[in-house]
Design a protein that fits this description.
The chain is an alpha+beta fold. The chain has a single domain (13-54, 62-227), classed as 2-Layer Sandwich (Alpha-D-Glucose-1,6-Bisphosphate, Chain A, domain 4), CATH 3.30.530.20. Helix content is 31%, strand content 34%. It contains five helices and nine strands. A nine-stranded antiparallel β-sheet has the order 1-2-3-9-8-7-6-5-4. Helix 2 runs parallel beside helix 5.
Length: 228
């Protein structure tokens, strides 16, 4: 879409369908970066926040995930903060998040393969392939801070994956018998603003809600295995 303004893009229903298709494709491209992060991991003190639906409330309506838009420290790009609860104790969910050789990840519709490359102390390297771009390998570095239940991550090969940068963190906190998850991510790629603000299926909000619910459902299966 270089050189085109929005008035030119949406001149016909045919053009609109083409743009929607392109944006959905961008969502899938982004999913390759984000899905495994939510399933596996992971810088604090990052940037200002702009809420997607007003200020965060103390109560989560019906335990629905809360999504806020963030502006990164870099000149370009976007970010988000995703908050949700998981019905599992923090030790169970922490074990799930730090199990970097977990076969349950393949239950996610976007993940074709996942490999633990190395783990030296608190530094973990993983590689992932995704269903929508199976020939691309995404190499993630995650730093584990067990005393804080905190994971910090970065994509080591962003150019190979169509990104300019991608990094963030996951923070777990106890909430009674449940775990509260806060996931912050910053990224930049072609079409990032459209993807972040696209309100329909294939946009950021739809994708993040799917991913949070997938984790909420999956952890119950993991908890059963963990307790055996």
């Amino acid at each position: 879409m270089p050189g085109e303004g929005f008035s030119g893009i949406f001149q016909s229903s045919s053009d609109m369908n083409k743009i929607r298709y392109k944006i959905q494709n961008k969502a899938l491209v982004y999913a390759r970066n984000c899905t495994c992060v939510l399933a596996l991991v992971a810088t604090s003190g990052l940037a200002s926040e702009l809420s997607a639906s007003g200020p965060l409330k103390a109560q989560f309506p019906n335990d629905e995930p809360i999504i806020s838009k963030l502006m990164p420290e870099q000149a370009h790009g976007r970010g988000f903060k995703l908050e949700y609860f998981v019905d599992a104790p923090i030790d169970v969910f922490w074990s799930f998040k730090t199990n970097f050789d977990n076969d349950l990840l393949h239950k996610n519709r976007y993940i074709n393969s996942h490999k633990l490359v190395s783990r030296e102390g608190n530094l973990v390297i993983t590689e992932n392939e995704y269903s929508y771009k199976p020939r691309n390998v995404f190499k993630w570095q995650t730093t584990v801070f067990p005393e804080r239940h905190f994971l910090e991550y970065t994509l080591l090969n962003p150019e190979e994956c169509g990104q300019k940068y991608h990094y963030g963190y996951v923070q777990l906190k106890t909430d009674g018998a449940r775990t509260r998850v806060t996931h912050v991510s910053y990224f930049d790629f072609f079409g990032v603003s459209l993807w972040v603000n696209y309100p329909f299926r294939g946009g950021m909000s739809h994708f993040l809600k799917y991913t949070a619910r997938w984790e909420q459902q999956l952890v119950s299966e993991f908890e059963h295995q963990y307790q055996q």
